[in-house]
């Protein structure tokens, strides 16, 4: 426990055949703070819930409870093209997509069910994720719960954790998240074909239904997107397509496109470390060249209310303003 934040580590929220799934909870010392659920990156196959930008600092600065959640990581068969990313020492249980999504939704429902126990407000929840976690956060935002993912996955999803609670979220922050799996070239090896169980031509419905962009409707929650224009891991076209879908559906969104920056806010992909330092990289150079697009809509008879009043640079202040506007 710090002076400003109480930390609960290793809370079990689900038990799967391959092991327990846990979350860490960071609680500011305030009455009923809103909740942010963080979904880590790592290509759906690597890293742990500790891969999060300083949660104690931002729980205090933003006056939000933050839950960083584990989810089943992708199993990689021997000889898979992504074997180099597979860490046999990673203690996180493993499975196959859509297990990752099923677990994120289970964590959201569990967090709603235990809000009174830990004294945070779970009526309005924001999901925040980076890279693969950005994909899962976006998917959690535009798909109400796992049973709505689509026919291609109907036999692979089940609500076993707090099934009477809502799995919906009311806002989402995506850092360089994969939003449209149909952008993947056909008949190539890699992480997404591994997730989908084959190529795009073999499983077109799985690729489409696993893509957040497919599920955007006028009922989708507001979105804050941040993406590097030079991203060599998740092409910035993913965020462009998602933002265009928001505009077409009449959903509020803000899209920061950071010039010259690669994945995890570095200039050279060889310099990527982890998400733990990503916010520091953004905050270190708030004047970095960036383009900002806004989609702001008003209900009939209402007035426009932008998500970010003065469009601060991409970084912690922009996220705080977005959270204040959407879940507080």
From TrEMBL:
UniProt keyword annotations, A-Z: Hydrolase
Pfam families in UniProt: BD-FAE
Keyword match Mitochondrion: no
GO function terms (MF aspect): hydrolase activity
Record protein name field: Esterase/lipase-like protein
InterPro entries noted in UniProt: AB_hydrolase_fold (IPR029058), BD-FAE-like_dom (IPR049492), GDXG_lipolytic_enzyme (IPR050300)
UniProt cross-references to SUPFAM superfamilies, sorted A to Z: alpha/beta-Hydrolases (SSF53474)
Signal peptide boundaries: none
Organism: Halosimplex carlsbadense 2-9-1
Keyword Hydrolase: yes
């Amino acid at each position: 426990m710090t002076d400003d934040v109480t930390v609960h580590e290793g809370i079990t929220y689900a038990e799967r055949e391959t092991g327990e799934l846990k979350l860490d909870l960071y609680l500011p010392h305030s009455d009923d703070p809103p909740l942010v659920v963080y979904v880590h990156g790592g290509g759906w196959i690597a890293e742990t819930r500790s891969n999060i930008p300083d949660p104690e600092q931002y729980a205090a600065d933003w006056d939000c409870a933050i839950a960083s959640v584990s989810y089943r990581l992708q199993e990689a068969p021997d000889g898979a093209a992504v074997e180099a990313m597979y860490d046999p020492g990673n203690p996180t249980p493993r499975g196959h997509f859509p297990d990752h999504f099923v677990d994120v939704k289970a964590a959201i429902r569990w967090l709603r069910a235990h809000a009174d126990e830990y004294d945070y407000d779970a009526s309005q929840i924001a999901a925040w994720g980076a890279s693969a976690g950005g994909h899962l956060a976006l998917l959690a935002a535009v798909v109400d719960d796992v049973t709505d993912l689509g026919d291609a996955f109907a036999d692979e999803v089940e609500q076993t954790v707090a099934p009477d609670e809502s799995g919906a979220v009311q806002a989402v922050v995506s850092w360089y998240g994969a939003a449209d799996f149909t952008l993947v070239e056909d008949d190539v090896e890699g992480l997404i074909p591994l997730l989908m169980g084959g190529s795009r031509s073999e499983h077109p419905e799985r690729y489409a239904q696993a893509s957040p962009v497919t599920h955007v409707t006028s009922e989708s929650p507001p979105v804050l997107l941040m993406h590097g224009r030079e991203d060599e891991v998740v092409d910035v076209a993913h965020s462009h397509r998602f933002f265009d879908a928001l505009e077409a559906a009449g959903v509020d969104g803000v899209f920061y496109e950071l010039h010259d920056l690669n994945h995890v806010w570095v200039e050279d992909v060889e310099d990527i470390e982890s998400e733990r330092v990503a916010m520091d990289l953004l905050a270190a150079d708030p004047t970095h060249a960036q383009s900002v697009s806004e989609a702001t809509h008003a209900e009939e008879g209402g007035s426009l209310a932008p998500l970010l009043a003065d469009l601060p640079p991409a970084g912690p202040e922009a996220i705080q303003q977005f959270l204040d506007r959407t879940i507080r």
